[in-house]
Amino acid sequence: MPKNPIRKKPDGRYRYRITVKSGKMVEIASRAGELRKDFSIRCDDLDKKVEGESFDKDFDGLFYLWLTSYVEVSCSKSYYIVMEGVYKKHVKPWIGRRRLEEVKKKRCLSNDGPGR
Which residue range forms the structural domain that includes residue 79? Predict the structure, then answer.
């Protein structure tokens, strides 16, 4: 069974989307006359192929890549300094050394919303 939902396109064919670890989205569509069962098998094969790829960056490396390639070029120097300080003080102690595959979002267990 594929990880993501298989959706039906307006023309009657099926499509399946998955995001690879490098951040790119891959989409496949069913062939003409292909049954959903057969398409599901192709989706499983795509999932297995994507799981085999690796992106060997930890969160710290990815943050500094973003900081130097986007913030330093596009934003002010003060914004750069603030972002680096906030990261070092609040984010790096918790998830700075983790690999990207290990970082997951936290589920809210109560109905009160996040932070309550």
Answer: 59-102
